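Think of the structure tokens as a kind of shorthand, similar to the way a musician reads notation: each symbol stands for something richer, in this case the local conformation of the backbone. In the example below we present two proteins back to back. Begin with the first one, reading the sequence and then the tokens, and try to describe in your own words what changes along the chain.
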Amino acid sequence: MTIYKALVNDHNKVKDLLVQLVALKEGDEEERTSLIAQIHDELIPHSRAEEAVFYNSIRAINTAQDLVWHGYEEHMEAEALLRTLQAADKIDVDSRKIAQKLKTVVEHHIREEEEKI
């Protein structure tokens, strides 16, 4: 399997988990907590590997530098939203709205990465 194919497989797993999270009905906290943990376990290691291997290998290409930094920014945004979801029971936030925003951010990032990089 190529690195690109592994990247796409990881993207698809995370997208599927996000679809499930956004589709949850109000009050299904046990499933919500489980999905957030699964998303964390897929997204964070994926982001770190992507940054270490993929981004580092293309950063030397002058035309790719802006895309790489933009990718880092999107990773940070997604991780901040994920942390907010993880703490949603302790702070006053609309977890459904945050979950939808996370889904939108991740899907946008995936689309850009798969089409432009």
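Once you have a description of the first chain, move to the second and do the same.
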Amino acid sequence: MIIRSIRIKEGLFSRFIEFSANANLIHSKQNSKGKTTLLRFLLYSLGYNIPNTRKIKFERCEVETVVYTEKIGDVTLSRTANSHIVLSANDDRTTYVLPEQQNELHSFLFGTDNADILGNLLGAFYVDQERGWTLLNRGVAIGSIHFNIEELIRGLSGRDCASLIQQEAKLSRELGKYKQMFSVAQYQETIEVEEGSLAVEHYDERIDSELEQLRIRQSALKKELRRLDKAIKDNRQFSKFIAEMKLLIKGPDGTTIPVTAENIVGFDDSIEYLITKHKLISAELASVLSNINSREAQRQSEDEQLSFWESETMTQAFDRRIASLQINAVAIEKE
């Protein structure tokens, strides 16, 4: 991917920067001239969640960046809000909701769908001046974007280590539980096991119902976004068509008036209405996607609780018994 140009607009002020096809050096003779701000605007325009600089609020700006991709050549990225970004290529517009569809966007831009690479790519090519190389192998690249060199190497090697990672996490949890068991072993004889056992909580079918409704709403919102994208594109093409036709109309006094998009009553208002509605639908879709992720996480948690009873280990039995105890941490600290 090659960044060709960027246009930044804030209110009435606009700045366009076209980059060289070769290496580009962003510099100034004095500090606080906007070098860091420009770099962060570039990352922001690629869909990353980048923190603002001291005097610039990115969400109040309109950013348009042209990048070259190996897949289809030049594409245009337009970002007018934190919640979404629009990719235009070959007269097609695609809206990506952020951060839920960030990996999908970056997969298109960077030419890979490996989650380990996409999740750590920024830390591989960008070093923020506030942190420098102090992050070294792992840490934070910028803002809330983390970097882990182990994940990056796994992605570059093309090896699927998902099962090993899950096994490592499970062993770490087990080790932690055994350490806790050892620390309370001296109180073992004083703990009275409650009669019976914890009742198995049956899977809540309500979550499935809510997920189904959310997915139906998600599908409807995506369909509406596609319709709005097409409507915006058609209106702009119609404006271009009117200009190319060079139509004239005769006024009551006999004067001829050229027909343009500017003197068609309500034309600009129609486009602004479509753009505003597009932003509202994008924000609602982001909320729906967030709710879907939350419900799926809740369902996974309940699935794990149900599978708990299939094969109860010593640590699981320990968890169940500890959960049945009524322990007041504040009262214990006072004692």
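Compare your description with these statements about the second chain. The CA atoms of residues 209 and 215 lie 10 Å apart.
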